[in-house]
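Report of the visiting student (M.T.), summer placement. My assignment was to run the structure pipeline on a short list of targets and document each run. The first record concerns 3-oxoacyl-[acyl-carrier protein] reductase.
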Amino acid sequence: MGKLDGKVALVTGSGRGIGRAIVEKLASEGARIVVNDLDADPAHETVEVLKKMGAEAVACVGNVTSPDFAERFVGTAMNTFKGIDILVNNAGYTWDDVIQKMTDEQWYAILDCHMTAPFRILRAAYPHIKALHAADVADGREVYRKIVNISSTSALNGNAGQMNYSSAKAGVIGMTRALAREWGRFNVNVNAVAFGLIHTRMTAADAKAGATVRIENREIRVGLNPEMLKTHAQRNPLGRGGTPEEAAGGVYLFCSPESNYITGQTIAVAGNLQ
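After the run finished, the structure tokens were exported:
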């Protein structure tokens, strides 16, 4: 018996990296999963991994910034599993530059991914959350639902070269606090997790200069300078960056029943706040 048996969890950006670790953790506790990724192959591969774990899972492939995505994503959960219990707004990426070189395209692309997309998804979920809560009350059930928004320590401290990302992730914290006040009456806990350096394909040491990933038909450079990674490890009290599994553990804290009286909060999963 898992702590999330029968719960329905929707996680954006969950075909790879931190998102995949999150859905594996939630599935290990009994949740039924709606997987999302930009690309079909990693989404369906993750679904198969979850099924081999004994979990129920379905894919909703697509770009979270597409105008029709939110309704499709929420609709996939309702049509397949008839419910929404956990929603994790995880999808994201960075497109860095100092302010004098940052274009409007860079600015809006990051805000659209990290703020507009979660806003649309949460708005699309509202009528279902309201109806599900009303049904719980009518049947005499006390059910808590969970929203977990992913922020960053860049929002808490700022980060040079990340005016767009730092601003968007700070906005996520404001969104979290506002929604916690709006949806508390539905027994919904709304919290945020601010990640520090987590080792994924996006932050791996840039062994080959110019490494990129393709996002929204753009080639986005990824990877961090090995010296930067070394400096981070030296400054961090734990002496290292985090793993996707450790990042997922922080998200799970806010998805578990133990968080039923915690809402509007942001915790840093970072080893430290620097």
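The longest strand covers residues 145-152. The mean pLDDT is 92. I thank the supervising group for their guidance throughout the placement.
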